[in-house]
Amino acid sequence: MTTSRPGLTGSPLDRADHLRGNDAAIAELQSSLSARLLMLDGLDPQLDEYGGLRWGSLAEAPVDAELAFLGFIEERPRFAALTRVPHGGRRSPAIFHLLETLPPGEAGTYAAARSLVDWHSRHLFCAHCGNETRTMRAGWARICDASAGGCGHEHFPRTDPVVIMLAEHRGRVLVGRQPGFPPGFYSALAGFVELGDSIEEAVARELKEEAGVEAVSVRYVASQPWPFPSSLMIACTAEVASDAIRIDTTELEHAMWVTRDEVAAALAGDLAAPFLAPPPYAIAYTLFERWLGS
Ligand SMILES: [Zn+2]
Question: Which residues surround ligand 1, an ion (CB under 5 A)?
Answer without folding.
Answer: 126, 128-129, 131, 144, 150-151, 153
